Structures are given as C-alpha cells and as structure tokens.
Amino acid sequence: MAKRKSHGGEGSHAGKKQKTNHVHEPPSSEEVYTGRQLHQLLTFEQDLRKARHGLQSFKDLLDAILNGDDKDSDKLPIVLEFLETTKPTEVEDEVPVYLPDIMETWSMASQMSNENVMSAVAVVLALLLKLISGNVDLASYGLGICRTLLQKRQQELLAKNLSAEKGKDFIISPTLRLLKEAVCLDGGALAAPIFRARNNTFKSLARNMGLRYLGEGIEDPKRPSVRTNAIRLLLGSLKLLHNEAKRDLLSQKDIVAALMRHLREDPPPLIYEILDALKTSVVRDKKLPKDVKIRILNSHSLTRIASLYGYSRDPADSEEVSENGRPSVEDAAHEILLAASTDPSAGICRSQHGYYPEGVDPDALIAGTDNTHSLELGIDSIPWMSKFEDEIPVRNMLLAEFIRSLRPWSSTKQSELLITIFETSPELIAHYFLHKKTFTFDPKLSATWMGYAALLYNVVQLPIPAHFGQGNGYARLPPPTSVVLGNIIPPPMTLKALTRCLSNKSKLVSFYAIRMLVLALQKLARVLEMHREASFSSESIWAEAARRLLDEFYLRIPDPKEVITCYRTMTDDDLLQREAASRLMLLYYEVIPQLALRAKFDVSPVVLATIKKVETSENAGEDVVMSLLELEHLCAIAKYSPSMRWFARTPEMPTSPFTTLLRLYIEKTTALSGDRLSNVLSYVADEYQLVESRPNSPGLDPLIEALRRVSGINAEVWTFLDNCVERCGRTPTKYLEMIEEQMEKAGVDTDVNTTTCPLMMTLVEQIPFFVSASPGKRALEQLVQLLSEYLGCSLASGINRAFLHVTREMLIAGIGDKKLGGKVLIPDRSTSSEELPSTHDIDATPVDGLVDGVAGGAAPRISTEELEDRLSVPIITSKENSLLKWSSKTPEELVEEGYATSLILLLSSEHPSIRREALTNVMKMATKIKESAYEENEQIWLLLMELAESSQALIGQAPLPSVIVAFACRALDVLKNPLHCLYEKVNVFLTSGPVWSLDRIPLMQNILQEGPTDDGTYYSEVSWLLGFLLDSLRTPKDIDFFHTRKVFERIFALSSNPYMGPNLRTQVLRILYRATSIEGGSDTVITRFGAVSWLVAQKAASTDAAQRALYQALIRRLWETCDQKRISAWSKGGIEKLIVE
Amino acid sequence: MTSKDTTAADFTSYYLQQSTKEFAEDLDKIRSADDFKGDALPVLVKSLQQGTSMFSPADQKRVVDARKPAASSQGESDS
C-alpha cells in the first residue's frame, strides 16, 4: 500500500480502491463572479468530474471569503444570491430540500463510491455552514440546510462518509467538521435533533476518535486529525446539548473511553479544549446530575488526566504559555483534578465519615444485645472493631481507585493533589496505604525515598477530622484502632524501617525519620486528647480504645534508645538535627512516658554540655536560638528524669545546672521565648522545695524578678546563690523548720495560708559565711541590693509580710555591718510586678465555651454589670485626714458622724507609721470620750481601749485583721443605740475580757448558736452579722481567715432555713460576690466550700426566675474569676459539667 | 506581605540554608542518584522545607529576630 497523504478536504488523494480514472488528477476549478454562475456550476451533473469542478470552484470561493481574502466583500453577495436562488419554495406536504443539486451529487457520488466527490461535498457544506454561523442574517439558510441534512437520505450519506475505512481521513474529517458546524449552528438550535439521529450522525464516533495523528512531530493545527475533529464534534455537543441528551451521550462508554484513551498523545491545544469543556460543561455544570458526571469523570478518566502530569511534548508550549497567560497542560490538568476530586458538587467526592469505615454505625445499638451491657463487655464486644485490618470499605471507591495511580513521590503537584484528596476525604488515607503494599519505606538515599518521606510527612501532618469524622459530636463508639493508628503512623512507617532510618549512616535519612516521628507523636497526643474529650460525654469505652491505641502504638514506634543513640552521633554543628531529636525525645516523655522512662536516659551530661554550648556560643544569632531551643527541650526532659542532678557542680562550670539555667534565663531569653525555661526552673524549685509548692505561692517568680532588676550580677553573688540553692534543695525540711521556729519566736501566728519561702531562710543562714569570706565591696553591695529586691518582690507577690520582716531582721543580723545591713529594705514592688508575666499565670486561659455554656438556660441572663449593681458593696474606707480631724470634734460627732470609725479603719493601713499613729490617736480619743459627758462614754471607752490593747502587739508588723477593725466599727454603731438588738451581746462581749482574740470572729458564735437576746430579733441579729462579715472581707488574707474560721460553711448553712427572707439571702450572696472580687477568693470558695454546688442547689430550690438568674450569674462570676485551669483539673471537669447543667 | 509571612519566609530561608549546610554530603549523593530527574529537585526542596512546620510562629520569630542584625550587616558588606 502506497503511503497516503491525508489532505483533509483538499481533494487530491490516492485512495486504496479508486474506481474512477480521474482520481489522480487534481480537481479543476474556475473563479466565480456571479450567483448565477455558481448555480450553474453546481447544477447536478451525471459527470462527476464536472461536479467536482463545480464543488472545487465553490470551495475556493468560500475559502476566499472565510480567509478574509475578499477585501471588497464582493464575493459574499455571490453566495447570498446563490442561496436565495436555490432556496426551496414552500410546498405543502413536501419537505423542503435545500441545495438539492449538491445533495443529489453527493448521493450519486456515494452510490458510485466516488470518494473525491463524497469528500468535496462535505468540505463545501462544512465551509458554507461555517460562513453562515458567522452571519446572523443567514441563520435561516443554515437551519434549512441542516434540516435537509437530517433527512433520511442525507443522514445515510453522512453515516456512510463517517464510517469510511480507516485512513480515509479526507472523507471522515470534513464530515465531522460539517456535523460540528451543524451542532453549533445558531446556538445549538439543532443539536438535539442531530443527537437524536446519532445512529447516523454519530456513527463510528468512538472509532473515529481513535484515528489520531500518527506522523512525526506535532499535529499541524491547520490540518487537524480525524480524532481532533471527532473530539470537537463531541465537545460541541457536550456544550450545547441539554442534560437529558448529555446523559445519553455520556452513557456511551466507548465514546468516553475513546476520548480519554490517547489524551496524553494529544496536541496541547486539543488538550486545553478537552479540559476546558470538562470543566465548564461537566464539573461546573450545577444542573448536571452527579451520576452523569461520574460517567465521564470515572477513575479511568481521572487516571488519564493525571497522566498529563509531566506532559512535556512541546517545549515551545511552555513559552507560549507565558505569552497567553494560559497555564501549562500540567497546571490545567492539576486544576481540573483538584476541582473534580475535592468539590462534592462534581460528583466524585462523596460525603464520608473520616476514620469510621463505610457501613459502620458507631451510634447504633449493638444488634441483639442490651447496649449498656455490651459496652460493659468492652471494646472487643464491638463486632467491627478489629475487622478493618486487611480491608476497609470506603464510600469514595472511585477516588480510592484513582489515587492509587498517582505517583506523589515524584511530583510535587501529584503529592499536593493526593494530600488535598486525603484532607477532604480522610477515609481514604488508611485505605490508600492498605492497597499500596509496594510502597516500601526502607531507607535509601535516593530521590524516590525523599519523595516517599515527604508524602508520609504530609500524611501524618494532616488534621484529624472533627470528632473523627462523625457529624456534630463524638459517637458512642470510637473508630477502629487500626484506622486511627494508620493515620497517626502510616503502615509504610514500619518499626523496622524506622529503626533502620534512625541508624542509617546518612544524616538526612535519620533527620527525616525524626521529623516524621515528631509529627506522629504530636498527632497521637491530639488523638488521645480527643478520646478523653469523647469519654467525657460518653462511656469509658473510649478510654479503653485509647489504651489499646497506645498499646498498638508502642509496637510501631522505635525504642527511645534508638533516638538517643542517633542524637549522640550528631555533631555540635548539626543544629537542626539536634533540635529535632531533642524535640522528639521530649515528646516521648510527654506523650508516652511509660516507654520513655524505660530508656533510663541520663540527660544530665547532655544538659550540661548544651548549657555550656549556649553559653560559649560564638555562632550567629539564629544558631544560638536554635541551640537554645534544643536546651529548652532537654531541660523539659530533665524534669522527667530522676537521675538529673540539678544542684551538682561539675569542674567545667562554676555553678550548678539549676543556677546556670537561671542565669541563662535571666540573660539570654526574650519575651518571645515563652515560658519553657521558666517552667522548668519553677518546676525544679517546687519539686526541691526551694519555694513553697502550693497554688497561691508565687514560686520562683520573686527571685527571677529581683534578678532581672539587678543588672550585671557578680560571679561571686551567683556562686553564693548557687550554694544556697544547693543547700536548700538538699535539706528543705531544715529550712521549713527554721521558718516555723522564727515565726514562733517573733510571735507571728501562722496558718495554712501563710506563704513563706524556704530559700530565704537558707540565704539568712548562709549570709554570715559569705560576709566572712570577705568578698569584694561591689559584690556585697550587689547582694544587699538583690536581697532588698527579693524581699520587695516577694511582698508584692503575696509572701507573708511578717515573715519577710523576720527575714529582713535576720539578714541584717547576718550581715553584721550595720551600715550595710541597714540597706536591706523591703521596697514596694507591687505596681511593677504586674508587668512581668508570672510563670504561674501563663496557662490560665479562660475557657470561652464553658463561660457561654453557663449563660444558657431558661432564666433571663443577668449581665456582669447588673450583677455588680445588685451584689457589689463598696469597701468602707477611712476619710481624709482622719488622723488629725478628730481632735477638734465633740464626742457625739466622733461617734455619730463616723470620725471614730474612720480613725479605727486606719489600723489596717499598709503603712506601719500610719498604723502606729492611728493607735495612739485611738487611745487619745478613748480618753477624750471617757472624760466627756457623752451618754455612752464608758462603753465606748471600753471598746476603744480593748481595741487598742488587742492591736498593740501586732500593729508594728502588720495591719490589723479586717475582721477586728470591722467589728470595732460595727460595735460602735451598736453602742450608741441602747435599743439595738445586739446592745446586750456587745456589752457582754466587751466586759468578758480586756483583749480580743485576733483569730476569732467576735459574736459569730453568740449570734448563730445562742439564739437572740429578745424574742423576734434573730433575723435582725443575723443581718447585722452578715453586714459585719461583709465589711470584714477585704483582702486575700481575709479570705484565708474566713477559710480557717469556716465562715462560708456557716453562712451557706444559714440559707437552708426556709424562712430566711430574700434580703438576708442577698446579703449572703453579697459576701460571696465580695469573695470573688478578691484574688484567690473564688478558688477558695469553690474548692473549700463547694460554692458552685451550693449555688446550683439554691438555684434549683428557687422558684423565682429572677432569683434563679441571679444564682446563675453568680456561678458564672465564680467561674470567670477563678483559676479555671486549676479548678477544671481539681474537679476533673466536674465543675464545668455542673455549670453547664 | 504581612510581617507574619515575612517571618515565615525568612525562617524557611534560614532552615533551607542550614539544611544544605548540615546535609551537603547527602544532598550531593541524592543529586547523583539514578532517579534524580524530572520533578526531583522541587520535590527535594519541598521535602526539606516541610520541617519548618514543626516550629511555632513564635519560635520562628525568635530565630528570625536573632538573625536580623547579622543579615543587615551582611547586606552592608555586600554593597
């Protein structure tokens, strides 16, 4: 067979079975000048040579018009005239036939198998329709011609042309073009009828779509192959057909398959056309049903489109891209794949349940059993729990099949596509790896392995679907362990592979493995947390699932020893590796401590070495930060390591690790560093009892703040501090006993809430030795400055004032030198302490959701302001110039107008001098009143003198307790009115002894337990008591006092009295409200007196909606003002639960 | 570009620079591997810089901030 040229519609061919003698001759033609001439040329002739001559002349004419050669536009009228003259006259009952002569010629040529003419007719008609398409006025002719084509005879002619043998491109191509023009004519007016006649009009379409260009190089855009023409017909139809027809068209499997089969071999322009059509006519066609969409976007098609990744047929293509602003073939394919496989409306991506396999209903009752019963049987009673280790049913079967064909390790785009699919359909992750058995992760320093590692990193990093993919809340049953595990540590990351990675001699391989393990442990931590969240609202089957998950995880993760060994091989310059490895080790300790502690890793020497490295580092800034990060991880590990010797000095370093770290923390960290180092320091200080470890204790903060305030601390001072820290850490009990002893000696009453600091006692004990070692003057002065700051900061952060005074005295004594000792002060640091973040406050973030939850419920919500209006009572304060003003007033004025009260209040002033002054004045005032003719002079004198007597001992060291001050003021009110219900009780109290006990609440016992003096005054007495208690509650110390005296217990019990009126109840609430506005108050009432449950009970018992709202608002207030993290942990989430309810 | 993006970009650049320093030998080996073709270079670079996601924005800023003075002095000497 001679090699044939495919010339489309040119007409000069060497067919295989030529039957005429004229075939080899090129067709003759003549120039056309008039419509009439054209008509004549095209008149039906028996002689097909003549017919061909006419058709060729017509073609030349149309070409000239379409190619724009017709500059004078004198040729178009020829065609118009011809169309007009040949337009069929309308005859009833007769179907009009347009261009009858041409149709006749075509028919005869077909009968005689004259392929040249068969081709020529199609060529001419296609051109003519193309011309008409571009000219609205001619639409009626076009429609006429197309309708003629749809007549049975012409349909058959079309079909015959289309089904010409392979290789007869010159017949098939123009016919396809003709049909495409017909489909697209007039906005697709006849697309539907043409499609209806698909038996003829789309004949052999699938086969024709397979007739692609086989020559060398790229297909010439001007001479499109049969495939190109066939595809254009298909795409034109897709674009213009209505949905029903589209469904039929896309149901032709052979056509869809033929479209996709050779996609990768197609020229770029054709690919763009196909992808564009898919995007606009399928993916983005919102009206097209999903089931129709997936007929064309099936996994085979997606795979074919994905084969365009790496398409680089035409290097010029990429240059052309930038000019057109058109994306490359690869980008276009990527875009459509992303859209198709992640947009649920594209039909491919179906809704799924994350980590729950298809067909599993984790909320369903377990068939045939009593549900609670089966849950008690544990996780193994769930029939599907361990069923998915070898096979996982998924809803997105199509995607599952498709993604297996991707090569994400060798292409960033494919990797991106796969990860995006995983993110939208997490159910596929476990399924993918289950079926990707060939995917082995054995370490090998190759591009493919890096690609694998990158993919696995991305997979592990994927977020966990909310509630593991189960709707709006956690299901009753957890997802299968194997699936969860596969998402945390994908199956290719086998224990063997990971271990081999860690011990690999290539640093990069072990680095990648370490990074992946970091992510895996972080994800595990999150998953375990989610299990805990779920078990909070459900049964403990979640907790069991979490345990099982951990057990399985242990089997998959390398022994921490492997990581440690790997870490030890790293050099000092391997900053990223060291950081990552230390991070990983820390995660071992934090997430799976059981396994980590088994390694018995002595972190001490490593911490020391790293501290030294950071200290002596001469590297650039960012490298130091990287080492500091490493150090932070290591120190956090050291917290867990029992073998860590925090206070042991080594020859290499002047101070112990603890002190060195403290110094590094003071000198090297910035605000950005966060709380990691300080957390470690505070932890150690707590653990070794350098400071008191209790919730209200400020911990190491005062020392840190003091160190920050004194710049450039001398090495000698550091050594001294180190020495003290070491001693205190070694024998803390000794110093605790010392505190007790000294406090007793000083006559200071201590209770559980007196905050002190053992380290200070060590300083006291050691300072004489420091002085006697005759250090430099500078060092001594600096130490004195540091000690002052330390005392000041301690006072500001709530360390007991009396204790600090005792300490100060002892420090002064220890220093010996009076001049220098005198410089040890307790400066006021209360304002600035708020500027520095406290290590204790950092985690106390409010839990918004819970606060909102509190507000819920049927009762009307009371705002914070409203609550304040109703329950907040201002704390009484003394008037201005109370110390001086009183002397000029009469006794009546003193008692009745509050001058005495104002003076009494000064006894609780912060400043010792004011208190002393006030005390003197109280005594003077007492004398003045006694000597006057004031009616109640004796009693008032007695009250004031007893007050003075009781406060004398304390007044130099600390403010008088609020309760005493408040009692004196309130008693004064009682005494001036002999008709007061408490007149007798107060007098009896005053005459019972000369000194009041400062640790008791006067009259509380008498009022609450002895009953009223006069009948019917019980409630008045209680009301007085509540008012007095409210006045007595002003400072955190008062809270502690109330705690010791169990005041809340008593006043809460009062409310059990059903006859108690609303006003008294409100008074109780006012006291509670006052407690919430004092630091630590809410915590005390919640943890010590069950305030929340009390309020909940009050609320439940109350029938008044407004009252209920008040209780609810107070519960909220309690929650808002407490240390939420601590309370949450203390109650194991119970408080929140109570609050929400 | 917001300062957050700048920090992330600067940190990525530091991370890549440091990786190429630490793994110079290994990276050379990969580049001469048989399968190092096509998309391999971008895949490799992407995979290296993945590790930046382990660092919190605050830590990234710490590193970048520490770097700034050095970077500016370098810029001066370059000019």
UniProtKB/TrEMBL annotation, chain A:
Source organism, top-level taxon: Eukaryota
Gene Ontology CC terms, in alphabetical order: nucleolus
InterPro entries: ARM-type_fold, HEAT_URB1, URB1, URB1_C, URB1_N
Region of interest (Disordered), ranges: 1-33
Biological processes per GO annotation: maturation of 5.8S rRNA from tricistronic rRNA transcript (SSU-rRNA, 5.8S rRNA, LSU-rRNA); maturation of LSU-rRNA from tricistronic rRNA transcript (SSU-rRNA, 5.8S rRNA, LSU-rRNA)
Signal peptide range: none
URB1 C-terminal domain ranges (all copies): 902-1094
URB1 N-terminal domain mapped to chain residues: 99-452
Domain (URB1 central HEAT repeat): residue spans on this chain: 641-821
PANTHER family (UniProt xref): NUCLEOLAR PRE-RIBOSOMAL-ASSOCIATED PROTEIN 1, NUCLEOLAR PRERIBOSOMAL-ASSOCIATED PROTEIN 1
Name this polypeptide is given: Uu.00g018030.m01.CDS01
Biological source species: Anthostomella pinea
UniProtKB/TrEMBL annotation, chain B:
Keyword Zinc: no
Domain Ribosome-assembly protein 3 C-terminal span(s) in chain numbering: 11-56
Keywords: Nucleus, Ribonucleoprotein, Ribosome biogenesis
Region: Disordered, residue numbers: 49-79
Principal location class: nucleus
Subcellular location: Nucleus, Nucleolus
Domain of life where this protein originates: Eukaryota
Record GO biological process: ribosomal large subunit assembly
One cellular component term from this protein's GO annotations in UniProt: nucleolus
Pfam family, any one: Rsa3
Residue ranges with Basic and acidic residues bias: 59-68
InterPro entries attached to this UniProt entry: Ribosome_Assembly_3 (IPR051898), Rsa3_C (IPR028217)
Biological role: Required for efficient biogenesis of the 60S ribosomal subunit.
Family statement drawn from the similarity comment of this UniProt entry: Belongs to the RSA3 family.
PANTHER family xref list: RIBOSOME ASSEMBLY PROTEIN 3
Name the UniProt record assigns to this protein: Ribosome assembly protein 3
Organism: Anthostomella pinea
